[in-house]
Amino acid sequence: MLITGAELFVKALKAEQVNTLFAYPGGQSIDLFNALYDENDIDVILPRHEQGLIHAADGYARSTGKVGVCLVTSGPGATNLVTGIATANYDSVPLVCFTGQVPTRLIGNDAFQEVDIVGITRSICKYAITVRKRDNLAAIIKKAFIIARTGKPGVVVIDLPKDIQREYGNDDYPEKIEIRGYKPKLSVHAGQIKKALEILNNAKKPVFLIGGGVNISHSQSEMLILAETTGVPVITTIMGKGAIPTTHNLYIGNIGIHGSYASNTAISNCDVLFSIGTRFNDRITGKIGHFATNATIIHVDIDPASISRNIAVDIPIVADAKKAISALLEKAQPLDIEDWLKQISIWKSQYPIAMKRTGLTPEKIIREINKNFDNAIIATDVGQNQLWATQFLELNAKKQMLTSGGLGTMGYGFPAAIGAKIGNPSKDVIVISGDGGMQMNIQEMATAICYELPITICILNNGYLGNVRQWQEMFFDRKYSSTCMRYRKSCSSSCNSPTEYCPEYTPDFIKLAESYGAKSIRITNEQDIAAALKTAKNTLKVPTVIEFIIEREENVMPIVPPGNSLDDMILESEDN
User: Model pTM greater than 0.85?
Assistant: First the structure.
């Protein structure tokens, strides 16, 4: 049977069990949307901006474990995906992005809304290709889904010219396909596992360092069993948080620039560092030459390029985290490390992460979120709000955090929450965002309203781009350059002291939320936090915006100054 390329596109999505498509139409994708018009098995979600669209697909993929799928038009539609492509690819999120393209005869002629999206995205995705022949369309789509979800997951971009969409051809869609040169590693090297266990079993001061790879591979339950079997304490990166319950007695905390004192100190003093699923990026290592200098380092990662790239390791294991942990569990045994665990406990009690100031603080807000939501997905934006969330959120098998780790993309949190709610309608979904990041994709409030999504949106409003302002305060002599969100043209350009006379904040989030049709609450006192969250939790079919007016110069502590080692931390700010 002969069908158009657009009809084959729909057939392929159904064969790949895609039931949710995040899409925005345009001239070079109109045939694809026409083919979707009477299709009842695929929900087409129409966000209000392509960047919001791909972040929503990202949140959907992270929270469900499925491949997120996007469809946009050519030119600006395609280029508006670029930040989201990089965001997802950095964090190993499986996405397949379809972009419309001008007809093949016009490619390279500067046609209206023509861009070389494959050339633009090749360095920030796992695979990108323009379909040049209708006969190749089915195989290319099949290949895209395989590449996106296998090995180290990532983003695949398929550029689909308009004439290919319209051309008739065979309706076959393959069940299996061989991809030349693509051989993701499926097995675990038994010899390396044996070596790693020998080293671990002889350790006196071991730690597990867990990254996002454990969460991506959905191996949290196996990781918990491994930690409890061996008795080895667990430290996580921001992306690895939740790999074991954060209330577990073996969980120490996060590592890195804003890691806990106990975590950073344990890394600096351990004798075996057993890392699973992390790239050892600069945000967690601090000064590389001073990182875990006393330790034998074992590194499990599915990407061989990540091993020994930043930190030289002693025992490399190239494997999927789930398979590696399962292999370790076969012969794991309890370790006699009571003295080490007692020392870590002392460090935790000596210098806990806590905000000692009275009044409305981010810690108190997040602690109330912990109390009021026990089956939830929490999406954060980027900046101080993200860091406070990663410090104070309690995560477990029923509570998941979504955040942009590798790229640190402002504007990610709200649309990611929309995708998560669409993919998990029975779960509570909460956004924790700063006032700056919230404005970057606030147009998606219309999407949340139109799809009747009761999302709880917590805006921590300090009137600043807070993370940059904190660095300006601590390391740039309080020169608050371009970080005040209340700035007016009439203000002094050198102002660095917020007062009660500062201009009103723009926008008024309460009025803006109400103009969309959302419920809105402004909180200035800590006594009102719980009631606001309960109101939001009980609000159906519309999002609730809770604006928390927090201290304008609140800082995230502790902090490792730039260029310093992990054991060189500033534990408290001057006002705390």
Answer: yes
